């Protein structure tokens, strides 16, 4: 899920540049076997360990040793379950803290460190810098709790 940018398209205008580290969709690097049993690379494979990645498959960008969410994505750290007699899970259901916000969320007052609630089945788990986080889209955040 981690890649380093070696080139951007000539027509690209944005924040991603050469040498940036990006977190991308896991299927980009996936190999599979076709109906005849031959191993095939993903359709994003170009050559010599180079891949052509579409912007909608980029979730997070590391520039100058600092992570920033990309486009409509944000990253949420799940909220630990409070001390109770019976715990069903280690984490609270549908609650977390914004770790990497985005400009869409910031425009409506949801920033890094805010406790939020999110819709069911929107958690797409990642480990970033050894911290468990959920990658989500702006539309998955439904409530600011603090």
Can you describe what's shown?
With 146 residues, the protein is mainly β. The chain has one helix spanning 103-107; strands at residues 2-4, 21-24, 31-33, 39-41, 45-47, 50-51, 58-63, 66-69, 73-80, 91-100, 115-118, 124-128, 131-137, 141-144. A 6-stranded antiparallel beta sheet has the order 12-13-9-10-11-14, with no helix packed on it. Strands 1-2-7-8 form a 4-stranded antiparallel beta sheet, with no helix packed on it. The chain has a two-stranded antiparallel sheet with strand order 3-4. It starts with a strand and ends with a strand.
- Global Rg: 18 Å
How many helical elements?
1
Shape: globular
Count the beta strands. Answer: 14
In terms of DSSP E residues, the strand content is: over 45%
Q: Termini separation (Å)?
A: 32 Å
Secondary-structure element pattern, one letter each: EEEEEEEEEEHEEEE
Poorly predicted runs: none
Largest sheet, spatial ordering of strands: 12-13-9-10-11-14
Q: Overall pLDDT, averaged?
A: 91
For the largest beta-sheet, the strand count, sense and barrel status come to:
6 strands, antiparallel
| Helix-residue proportion | under 10%
SSE class: mainly beta
């Amino acid at each position: 899920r981690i890649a380093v940018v070696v080139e951007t398209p000539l027509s690209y205008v944005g924040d991603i540049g050469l040498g940036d580290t990006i977190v991308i969709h896991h299927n980009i690097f996936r190999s599979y076997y076709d109906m005849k049993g031959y191993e095939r690379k993903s359709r994003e494979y170009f050559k010599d360990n180079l891949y052509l990645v579409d912007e909608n498959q980029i979730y997070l960008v590391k520039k100058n040793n600092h992570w920033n969410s990309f486009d409509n994505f944000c990253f949420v750290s799940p909220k630990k379950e409070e001390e109770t007699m019976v715990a069903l899970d280690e984490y609270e259901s549908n609650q977390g803290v914004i770790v990497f916000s985005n400009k869409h969320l910031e425009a409506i007052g949801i920033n890094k460190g805010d406790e939020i609630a999110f819709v069911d089945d929107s958690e797409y788990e990642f480990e970033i810098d050894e911290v468990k986080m959920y990658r989500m889209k702006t539309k998955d955040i439904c409530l600011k709790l603090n």
